[in-house]
Design goal:
0% strand
Length: 147
């Protein structure tokens, strides 16, 4: 029987500093080293801080409906579905306790509709967003007594 072996070696790489004191290929993030006058660093890429959602169910349920009406097209083309879904979820979180207290018979149905919208965005399924919109319209009508 013939046994073959292999030698494995490890090498260490050292990045020597260049003439500017930085390792080769490393640059300072910004050449402007002016001290901040306000002491606040602003990142233009960071979204603005969101404010808490305030409103009653009679005010925010229609907003959820409007956002759901846009969701299908955004999933397919526009690409703003994450922001729209975040608004839907924030509005729902703001009124969920009120619905549970005042209209508990609608709670599970509205939650299932919000879950369907979430799945539509996560799985890139515009048809599910359309279905959630249709269901939410019926739920809003039930809430307002129009249905």
């Amino acid at each position: 029987m013939l046994v073959a072996g292999a030698l494995v070696g490890c090498a260490t790489t050292v990045d020597e500093p260049s003439s500017d004191g930085q390792p080769d290929g490393v640059e300072l993030a910004d050449s402007d080293t002016t001290p901040l006058s306000s002491g606040v660093i602003v990142d233009e890429v960071t979204p603005p801080t969101t404010e808490p959602v305030v409103g009653s169910a009679s005010e925010l349920l229609p907003e959820i409906g409007v956002d759901l009406s846009r969701l299908s097209a955004q999933i397919g083309d526009e690409g703003d579905e994450d922001a729209t879904l975040a608004r839907i979820q924030a509005n729902w979180a703001a009124i969920k306790d009120e619905i549970e207290r005042d209209r508990p018979e609608l709670l599970n149905s509205i939650q299932a509709t919000i879950d369907m919208a979430t799945t539509a965005v996560e799985r890139n399924r515009p048809a599910d967003a359309d279905k959630a919109f249709s269901l939410m319209n019926d739920l809003i009508d039930s809430f307002t007594g129009d249905g």
